[in-house]
## 1
Amino acid sequence: MAPCYALKATSLGNQRRQIRFGKLRDALWPSLEAKLKQRDDWHLTDILDYEHGRGDPFAAAVRATRMPMVITDPAKADNPIVFCNQAFQALTGYTREEIVGRNCRFLQGPDTDADAVARVREAIENGHDVDVDLLNYRKDGSTFWNALYMSPVRDDEGVIRFFFASQMDVSDRIEAQQVISDQKLLVEREVDRRTSDLRAALDARTLLLHEVDHRVKNNLTMIGSLLRLQVRTIDDPGVVAILDSMLERVDALAVVHRQLYQSSDLARFDLGSFVHSLAADVVGASGRSNIMLDFTTQPLFVDAANASALGLILNEILTNAIKHAFADGRSGRLSVHVEHNIDRGIIRICDDGPGIPSTHRTKSIGTSMITRLARQARAEATWSDNAPGTCVTITFPRSETEV
C-alpha cells in the first residue's frame, strides 16, 4: 500500500507543478512572443545585402538606433514598408503588423502639405535623396512634425533595391518657428499701424505747411500788387526805382514760397532748379531779348529753413547783373553754374559786362543785403573778375537730409 500511496503523491505533485508552469507560461508568453517578433523585425535588416553582405554593422545600427527608421521595397506594388525598427513603432503608435506592407502615406492626414508630399513622390520616381518636413498623424490621431530624410539604396549595378528613410520628431522646432513667425507678423502689423499713423500725421503736417506757404505766397503777391499801384501814383524816378527794387525782392520771395508749397518734400528746397527758373524770370521781366542765358544746373538741395535767404541772395545777384553789367541796353551773356561737393553747394553767376569796382560794391545796398542774408543762411558770397565782367560765387551747406 505504501508504494502505491507514494506513486499517487508523486503524480499529484507533478500535476500541481504542471498547473503552475501553465499559468506562468500563459502570463509570460505575450511579452515573450512580442520580443520574438521584434527579434524577427531585426533580422529583416539582413535583406540589405549591400556592400558588406549579410549581417554588416550598418544593419545592426539600423536595428539598435533610437532614431525611427523604415525600409521600403520599390520592386513591390506601391513601394510598401518591409522593415520598421522599434523607434518608428514608438513614434507612430503602430505595431509592426500594422506597418509592414503599407505605403508610408498612411501617416498622412488632412493637414499634411500636398507640396511636401509631392516632393517625396518626385524623389522616389527619380531615384534621388529628399529632405522634407511633413505633418504626420499617429495611430491615436495626434500629430507630429516629421523631419523625413529618404535615400535610395542601389546594388552593384546601380539598380535601386530599397529606399531607406529616417524620421525625427521636430514638433518643438516647428512650433517654435511658428511662434516666431506669429510674433514677427504681430510686430509687422504693429509697425504698419504705427507707420500708417505717422504717415497720416506727416500728411497732415505737410498739408498745414503747404497751406502756410501758399498763404504767404498769396500775401506777398498782394503786397506786390499794392506796391505796383503805389508806383503808378509816384512821379519821382528815384522813389520809383527804389519801389521797383522792393517789388523784385517781394516777387522773389513769392517764387520761393510757391515752390515750397508745390514740393512734396517739407525738409528740403531744390535751389538748383530755383535759380534756373529765377534767372529766366528776371531776364524776362527786364524785357531784354539781347541777354543770352547759359545754364549748367543740377538738383541742389538745401534745408527749407534757408530757402528764403538764399532765394533773396540769388535774386539780388541776378538783378544787379541786369542793371549794371547790361546797362543802357548793352547786350551780353549771363551764365549760371550749379555744382556741389561732399557737404556744400556752389552757385556761380557770371556776366561779361564792364565789371564793378570793389569800392562801389561795398557801398551798395544790394551787397550789404547779400552779406547779411549770407550770414543768416551760413553761406559765403565772393566776387571775382571774370575778365571781362564779374563773377559772384555763393557757397552754402547742402541739406543735412539729402540722400
Note: The chain has a mean pLDDT of 78.
## 2
Amino acid sequence: MTTTSGNTSTRSAVTVIGLGEMGSALAGVFLDSGHPTTVWNRTPGKADALVAKGARWAATVRDAVAAGPLVIISVKGNAAARRILESAGDALAGRAVVNLTDGTSAEARAVAEWAADQGTEYLHGQIMTIAPGVGHPETVVFYGGAGAVYDRYRSTLRLLGGRGGLIAAGAGIPAL
C-alpha cells in the first residue's frame, strides 16, 4: 500500500470503518501521518477522497478487518457498530478494535463483552471534539478498556488528539 505521506514501513496498518464526517477525519489523520490505511463504508462513494489520498478501499467489512491489526470503528450507535463488526466473522480474532461510536456505558460494555467472545482486544473511546478538531494537539480523546491495547497503539491513537488517554480499565462507566 502506498500513501502520500512517505515511509509507512514502521507505522501500524489501520482500518477505519465508517466514513461519515468523523470517520473520514479519523482516516485522514492516519493517512496524513503515514499509516497504511484501509477504509470501508456501506456507501462506497464516501471513500473516494480518502482513496485518492492513498487509502485502500475494502469491498467488505471482513476484508477491511483482515487488512491490519488495528480496527477503528465510528458509526451511528453501538448496535450498528456491533452489526457491522459481526459481519467480519472470524477475521476479528486477534485484532484490536477501537470503537469510537457514541452511546451509553451499558452499550459500550455489551460491545466489549461481545468483542472479547470473538477473541478481539477492545477499547471504547469518546472523542471530545467535532470532526475538524480531530488530530489537533489540544483535542481530547478518552479511552476505556484493555490497557495492553492502549499501550501498544498509544502513539497511533495520540494522533487523533494530543490530550486524554486511558481513563478506565473497562469500556463505559461501571454500573453502580
Note: The radius of gyration is 15 Å.
## 3
Amino acid sequence: MRKILIAEDDEQINRLVCDYLSSEGFDTLSALNGLEAVRQVRENTDISLVILDLMLPFQSGDMVLKKIREFSSVPVIILSAKSETSTKIDLIKMGADDYLTKPFDLDELLVRTEAVLRRSGGGDNADTEEQILSFKNLTLDLNSGTAEVCGRELALTVKEFAILALMLKNPAKIWSKANLFESVWGESYLSDDNTVKVHMSNIRAKIKKHDPDNEYIETVWGMGYRLLS
C-alpha cells in the first residue's frame, strides 16, 4: 500500500485529508508541525508522497521542503493559501513537485496525488520491466525513478526526472517549452509561464555539480531544448 505523509497543523484538515486518502486505498501518516514532518520522512523511507502545508509551527513548510531535499527525492505536493506565481516558482526551485492553493477540493487533491505518484513510479501500475536510459555520463532507471551522473546519485524531483526521461527517450528531438510542459504536467501551457525554464536551470545545475566538464542540454534559440551530443 502506498504511504502518504500529510503535514498540516490544522488538526481538522489533517484528519479530513487522512480519512479521505485512506478511503481511497492509501496508507496515511500525520505530522502537525515541521520538525515532525522532517523526522517522519527521515525515519519512514517507504513514504511515497508528502502533502505539505506551508504554514507549519516550529519549522515552516518551505524549510521542511529544503530539509527533505537534503536527503530524499520523495515527491512533495505543497498546500498553501498563497497563490502568487512567484511563490510557486520559488517552491519549484526548491524541489516541490506540485502546488495546490487553499481552499482545495479533495477530489482535485486525489487526482494530483495519483498523477504525481504515476510520474514517480509509485502508482499501482508501475512497469516492472527493467528500463535504463543513458546519455553521456547520465543514467536514468525508469523502474526505480533514480538517476546517476558519473556513478553518483542525482537528486531529482519527479518532474525533473520526467523531463530528462522524455529527452533521453527522444535524443534527437527539439522540445519546446509547450511540448515539455504539456507532456510532463498534463496541462495547457501558458506562454508567460517560466516553470519549464526553472526546471531546466535546476537540472543543469544538478548535473553540472557532478560532471562539470560536460554539457548535456542545449537551448535552441526560438525553438526549445535538446540533448547536446
Note: The two ends are 41 Å apart (CA to CA).
